[in-house]
Amino acid sequence: MVVNFSEMKTIGYDHGKEGSDEIQILDARSKGRWEGIDPEPRPGLKSGHMPGSTSVPFQELLDPETKQLLPKEKLREIFQSKGLSPTKPIITTCGSGVTASLVEAALKHADFGRPDDRRVYDGSWTEWASRVSDTSGLIKTKAG
Fold it and tell me: Is residue 13 classed exposed, middle or buried when 0-12, 13-18 and 19+ CB atoms within 10 A define those classes?
């Protein structure tokens, strides 16, 4: 299942309000891009992250030698170490929607979260950073 931009924007604006903590947003991009320190590969696109999102770089979910998903127990450890809960809804995102699907595959492999409570934001960072305004407060960085 996918989530569209308008729903993501509502989730972003609602972050920090009562009830908004129920939705977990997992960002598959590198930590540097998520923090707003490293540039995006697309010229002119700001780096940073969506309000309330958690950095889960997809490389952390793969065996460094085989490039296959880690064993399900290890994946569960990684998700839990990032403060994620299998009982709350999850949305995965990335730069363009591709590696968000890899994180979704890792969640499925680890049996983490209910399948009907997991969705992919396929517009991902490219759509988000292109469509939200600079003054919206919807692009966060490590500094703020």
Answer: middle
Q: 124's torsion region: left (phi>0), alpha (psi -120 to 50) or beta?
A: left
Residues 63-87: tens digit of each pLDDT:
999 999 999 999 999 999 999 999 9
Alpha-helical regions (H) of the chain = 5-14, 31-35, 72-81, 98-109, 124-131
Contact by Cβ (8 Å): 84, 54: yes
* Maximum separation of any 2 CA atoms in the chain, in Å: 43
3 state SS of 100: helix
Q: What is the pLDDT of residues 105-116, one digit of tens each?
A: 999 999 999 999
**Neighbouring residues of 97: CB distance < 8 A, sequence distance ≥ 6:** 120, 121, 122, 123, 124
pLDDT in tens, 32-63: 999 999 999 999 999 999 999 999 999 999 99
Residues in the chain: 144
Choosing from 90, 94, 103, 129, the catalytic residue is: 94
Residue 94 is a catalytic residue: yes
